[in-house]
Amino acid sequence: MQEYRIPWGQWYGQKEKKLTFPDGWEVYYCGMREFPGLSGEQILDKINHPVASETLEHMAAGKKSACIIIDDISRPTPGNVLLPMVIQKLVASGMDFSQIKVLVALGGHRPMTRQELERKVGRWVLEHVQVLNHSPYAADLVQIEDAEQVIKVNRNYMDAELKIAVGCIVPHTLAGFSGGAKAVIPGIGGIETLKSNHSLVFTDKNKSMSFKTSTCNPDNAMRSNMERIVGKAGLDFIVNVVLNGNMEIADVFCGHFIKAHRAACNRAMEILKTPLVRGADIVILSAYPKDTEYQQIGTCFAVLGHHKEAAVREDGTIVAMTAASEGAGFHALFGPGMSLFSPHDDNVPPFELKGRETLIFSDGVQRVDIMQYYREEAPEICGTWEEILTRLEEKYKGRKPLVAIYPMAAVQIGCMDTETVDAAGRENK
User: Staple partner for 378: which of 80, 240, 304, 374, CB 3.0–4.6 Å?
Assistant: First the structure.
């Protein structure tokens, strides 16, 4: 048997899953290109040389308070590495620890526990500054006057003299990429603002959950709205990182919330670029490192981008995988019973792949846990790889299927160019 190992369970032990395939099958492990991780000194040097912005120290001089936004545990940003660097720069500029707050940009996600915060931001941060969960339902959100929409933003952020956002750059189906202004909206917005921003992606007036996909294209209506709002709310300095296949910081872009963000997106296109296998019979898509909850299993299709139909044969099989370490998950907009909820049978798999057999592999949830996400009958959950392999061997008995494994599909950027692997190419990428 051929054996491959993929990362599994971001933030929850960093385990591996062993996938096996018969020797006669043609299997391609489509990992990301290798890029080295930066040292602490190299990261600091990047922070010291911002894009289209004054240095952080210069901005902090004379300021009496700062609020630093960071994404939650559903995202792989290494806050325990980045936040101490940012905080120490603020203190070196004359600010006291008591004047600095870290605000977790939950958007519509659930609050984080103390144990989760320690994993995400590190014990040093928790011991030196106040770390708060944002709530889109808070009563004291600040409303910003605007003729087009209701804009409400977290008061802790609005009251701060210096506003900073820390995050990572990965592909996003609706906003093009993560990072930049997205930390503010939806990160720390009120629920009305989150809804109006997300509603911009619908293709019809009935908001039917048929999305205008913008994967890897930051020039879209949703991000334009985010940046318009941030222009009113303010965002002085961003620290956006691009991670390599080992979840190490491969590059850092700091400074202006639009210009530095776009530079980071361009770099992400290089670091996260992954040649796709054309016309695979079996496609293995892992939601790692966004595999904390079943709610986000759809992110595993990000790697296929705009090449979904070319990447999977019409009679092919998709295996969508997630550790779902936290179980089913929660979302205040897209969760069951919420205002923008649509059953997963509308988007897993995406409409371009309807008709392809889809198997779900997870050892974190069972079928009863996910029934709430489906309009009719919930799909079967396979809790072991052996169950998946048995299904695949039955379907492809007597054949030698072409298999493509995307071990970090939620953050890989798929491409089909001269590097593309197809059935005629025998080199394992």
Answer: 374
